[in-house]
Design a protein that fits this description.
The complex is a heterodimer of chains A (about 400) and B (about 425).
Chain A lengths: L1 E8 L13 E10 L2 E11 L2 E2 L1 H25 L10 E7 L3 H12 L7 E7 L5 H7 L4 E6 L4 H11 L4 E6 L2 E3 L3 H7 L6 E10 L5 H10 L8 E3 L17 E5 L2 H5 L16 H11 L3 E12 L5 H24 L5 H23 L7 H27 L4
Parallel strand pairs in A: 1-2, 5-6, 5-8, 6-7, 10-13
Antiparallel strand pairs in A: 2-3, 3-4, 8-12, 9-13, 10-12, 11-13
Helix pairs in contact in A: 2-3, 6-9, 9-10, 9-11, 10-11
Chain B lengths: L4 E7 L3 H12 L8 E8 L15 E7 L4 H10 L5 E5 L3 E3 L3 H10 L5 E11 L4 H19 L14 E5 H6 L11 H11 L3 E14 L3 H21 L16 H12 L1 H20 L3 H24 L4 H8 L11 E3 L4 H11 L4 E5 L2 E6 L13 H6 L3 H15 L3 H7 L6 H10 L1
Parallel strand pairs in B: 1-2, 1-4, 2-3, 6-8, 9-10
Antiparallel strand pairs in B: 4-7, 5-8, 6-7, 10-11
Classes of the chains: A alpha/beta (about 400), B alpha/beta (about 425).
Amino acid sequence: VATAVIQVHVEHLPARIRVAAGYAHAYVVLWRGTEPVARFDLPVVHGEVDPAAFARALFEEGRRNRHRWLVRDYLGPDPARSTGDVTVAICTHERPADLRRALAAVQRLDPAPFEVLVIDNAPRGTETRTVVAEFTGARYVCEPRPGLDCARNRALREARGDIVAFTDDDAAPEPSWAGALVRAFDDRRVWCATGLTLAYELETDAQEWFERYSSLSRGFRRRRFEGAHHDGLSVGAIGAGANMAVRRSVLAVLGGFDEALDAGTVTRSGGDHELFGRVLAAGYDIVYEPAAVSWHRHRRTWPELRDALRGYGTGVFALLTRRLVRDHEPAALLHGLRWFCRHHVATLWRALRGRSGTIPLDLICSEIAGCAAGPAAYARSARALRSGSPR
Amino acid sequence: MTPRVTIVIPTHNRRAVLERGLESIVAQSYPSSLIEVIVVADGCTDGTEHLTMPPLLQARMIAQPASGAAAARNAGAAVANGDLLLFLDDDVIAWPGLVEAHVHAHASMSPTALVVGYLSANPRNGDPLFRGALRGWWETMFDRMRQAGHRFTYADVLSGNCSIPTRLFQALNGFQEQLHCHEDYEFGLRVLKAGGTIAFAPAAGGSHEEFTDLRRSLRRKRDEGTADVWMARAHPDIWTALPLSRSPASRRSRLLRELALNRRSLGRLFDAAARLSVSLLARARLRVRWAVLRDNLLFYWYWCGVADALKGGSFESFREQVGPRSVRVCELPTVNLRQGLAAAMDELDRLDAPGVVLYYDAVYVGTIAPQPWAEPLRGRHLRHILSTTLHAPLAEALATAEAIAAPHPGLADTARLPVSVSGAASDDDARM
C-alpha cells in the first residue's frame, strides 16, 4: 500500500488532514515560514492522517525546537549578503519525461539563477535536445563521454557562475532551493553545500523501501562539516549529488570529480561523496543546508531499487579503493572494513533473523554483492579512463 | 584624493620570492608615480642588498644588521615620504588592485583607521594533512572579519598586508621592537586604545607561499607564549583576552601545562614521542587523531614559550602580579531587548558604553563585558553576539519572559469557579 506525501504549514494547521483513497500511511512534511522543520511518518485512518498521532508528533517537534524558533523569530532572517552568480546544472541521460519536470521546477526558481545548463550525457537520440528546446533560457550541452562525473566536470567547465548547483534529472527543486544553497558560500571556507532531499512520491513498495532504508534526507538541522576536524572518509552524512552545489574552482584547484566514478561507469555511484572527501581533506568546509529542498522521484520498480542499492554498494567501495590506491590513505582500508561489518553484516544478520521491519533479504544481498564488486570496478574503470575506451 | 603610498617590505634572505613580489607591485592599477617602495634587508646574507629594483618603481633598499621584522618596518617607515604606509611581507604577490583597494578603504574611513587586507596562502611544506589544516586556519582568520557585525579586536591586525596613515603610525611610535611575534597585535591594541579603528578590505588582496611546516609552527607557538607574557606585563587590562589567562579545560591540558612550566625533562620526552606519533598518524592519514595530537603539541609549546619568558619564575606569582588584581565593579548601563532588535541596536549606539547588561523586560539575558582589546561596542555588533555567545541565554529568557508576561486566560477563570466546596480543598491539604 502506498504512502501519501503531504505538506503542512504550522501557520495554517488544518483541523484534519484528508488523504485520498488508497493510502495507508502519510509522509507529512512540516514547514514553518519558508523552512522545512520536520517530517513525520503517520498512519492514515478513515481517509485522514491520524489526528492523535499528528498532535503527538507536533508536540514533540515543538518541544525540541521551541527555543531555537523563539530566537530565530526575535533576530529575524540573516541579513542579506552578497553571493556569487549561480549556474544550475542538470546532468541527464535518457530520461526526457523526468527532465521536463526538473526543468519546469528550475524555471520557477526565485531568485532566478544566472544560467541553466543541461548536460546531455552520451545521448542515443535527440529527445533530450527537443525537451530542452521547450524551455527558454536553458542551454543544451552534449557530453559524449559516458559517465555522470564526466558530465559534472563538463558542467564545471561550461559554467560561467562562480557556484554550480547540481540537481538530478529525476528531482524537482523548490523555488527557494538555489538561493538557500548559495547563501552557504558566503563563507569563503565553504566549497560545497548540500540540501535536503525529500521523496516526491511514495507510490510503490520499492519507493517506500528506498525512503526507509536509503533516504536521501539528512535531517532538518543545518550542519557544518569542517575540513580541519573531519576524517574525510565518513562522508555519507553530508548529503548526495542529487542536491548539491560546489564552487566552480573545485575543477581548477582539486581537479573536479573523479571521472572513473559514478553512474555511466562500472563503479555506478560515489562520485559526489568522493569529491566531498577531497574538499574536506584539502581543508575546506561543507555545509548541509536543509532550507534547500528538492523533491526526488525514487525508483518505482523493485528490480530498479535492487539495482540502485547494488550500485551504491559498488560506488562506496570503489571510492574507498581510490582513496587507498590513488590518494595513498591506509585509513580507507580500516574505514571500509569497519563500515562493512557495522552496516552490511549487521543489516544482513537482522534480515536473516527475519525480524519485522528489517530490510528484505534480496535488497541487502544485492548491496553486499555490489560492495564486493567495488574495488575491481574501480580498477577497471580507471584503466579504461586512462586508455580512453568506453566503460 | 590621491595620497602617496609608501610600501614597506621587510625581508630576510628570500631574494627570489622578493623579486616576484616586486614585479607584482609594478603591475598595480594605482598610478606608479604615487607609489614608493622601501625594501628593508634585515640581516640578509644572500645578496638581497644588491638586488636591482624593477626600473619602473621608485624603490629604495635599506640594509641593516639582523634586528627583527618590527625594527625593519620601523626603519622603513622612518624614511617614508608617503601619506599612507602599506606594510607587505616579502613573500606577498599582490593582486593588481591591492594598493588601490587600500587607498579606497582609507578614503571612506576616519583618518585614524588601520586597514587590513586579505592574503591567501599556498602551503608548500609538510604533509597533505598539515597543508590542509594550515589553509583552513588561514582562511578562518579572514572569514571572521568578513562576517556581518564582526567586532574587530587587536588580534585581527596582520602586519603582512596592512595600511595606516603615516601620521598615525608616527604618533604611535611604530611597532614594538622587543617583540619577535605578535608585534602586529600589540600595535593594533595601541591603535584601538588611541581611539582608532580597524577595518578589513577584502579586495586589497594578495597571495603568498606558505613554507611553514609542523616544526616551524611549533617554534612560532613558543614565540607566541613568550610574546603573550610580554603583552600581559605591558597591558594588564587585556589579561582575559590572552590564551594564558584561561585555566586548562581538561586533565590532559592541565598535565601538558605542568610539563611545560615545571617538568621540562618529562616534557621533552612527551615532545619527542608526540612528534613521532604525529608523523606516523599523518602517514596513515588518521586525520582526527592527528589533529588532536597536533593541537596538544601546539598547546605544550605555547606554555614552553610562557615558561621561557618567566625565566624560572612561577606562573602563579606572575598571575598574581599582572592578572586581574581586583574585580573592578563597573556600572554598566542596561538595555531592554523587548523593544526589538533594531531599537536595541540604536540604543547601544546612543549609549556608547564599554559594555552593557541585557534584559528582556524583567528577565536577565546576559552581560557584554567591557573589552579594552576590541573596538567600541556598537549596535551593529549586537545581532552577531545574540546569535552566537548569547544564543542559549536569549532563548531561555524569551521563553521565561513569555511565560511571565502572559498568564493563560484559563487561570483567571478558575478564580471564579465554585471552589468553596470546602471539603475537597481541605482533603487536598490533608494529603499534602
